Amino acid sequence: MIVLGTIIVQMGLGTIYTWSLFNQPIVDHFHWQLSSVAITFSITSFALAISTLFAGKFQDKLGARRLIGYAGILLGIGLILSSQISSIWMLYILAGVVVGFADGTAYITSLTNLIKWFPERKGLISGICVGSYGTGSLIFKFVNGSLIQSVGVTHAFLYWGITVMIMIFGGSFLIREAKVRSEAQTKNGIQSRDYTVKEMLKTKQAYLLFVMFFTACISGLYLIGMAKDIGVNLAKLDIATASNAVALVAIFNTSGRIILGALSDKIGRLKVVAFALFVTGVSVAVLSFTQLSYGSFFACVAGIAFCFGGNITVFPAIVADYFGLKNQSKNYGIIYQGFGIGALAGSFIAAALGGVVPTFTFITVMCAISFVIALSIKAPDQGKSQKETKDYQEKLSA
Asked: What is the pTM assigned to this prediction?
């Protein structure tokens, strides 16, 4: 029942990734600039990432179940009030800041809570959660698209807000908070313990993981935002054909989350991440340096989307493996800032370097660096002497 509740919550949260459907209808309704309206989702993504820094503290005070329920209410209110906006700044505040902050709070709380319930299946559980998030986006592309056509964009916000509020608040009633006992554990030869945020930030592994996660996010998010344009400009496809890349991204992104998440439990998380970074780097290099055909374009898009989905699924489990489960929400919240920065960095780097191809070249180099890190990084407690571990256990007992 806890898994079911988390799936319902994550599906409701994932609906924010239907935002692109609202851009043009908002422009048509209010006669604002498309570029100004499109900024809203960047604000949403940034607010989502920032909220993960505070979710752990809120959870300590309210508990996972209540926090998720309150976040669902806030997210729904943000969307409902967006149906009454009269200025672009109201859109930024309500659909951007409020919705993003509520979404990120419920996302990381429900994800890390479920991982704590199934510590031996972290990869699979992460895949189920993050896959449900992607499935919510996929399903609501049709739901919200239909609402916009039938009742108009303002009323679509109203019905969307009511629906996700019911989903997230209702799903929260099935969730129970997991309790994690502080203790040193040995698994696969790695002696691990529960790190606080302060302790985690004193390790080099935290910064290496951040670089890897940033690389995974900038490559995936930049491609998702530019898939259609890349098909038209680089592969010379017509708009209708290139638009199929959007559906392809959604399908492979979701499947990558479940498949690579489960696989990480079997063969090791860093092996999966290294594989995903290698495929991403090769795919981005092909997009940058070769004459694209119909087949090569869609193969590269599918590969990048599949690996992006897998990477953002496996990283929560890696953080739990390296730094323990007790402070998972707070610790992963720090690493998760790579998502927010990655969401914004692609556009800025493209503007600075002068276009898509130089940006892909930059991403290819980052993938190569992160690939090397994935092959060489070790858990912070690996190699600890038995005496150090015993001393730590005795300290906990005392």
From this structure: 0.79
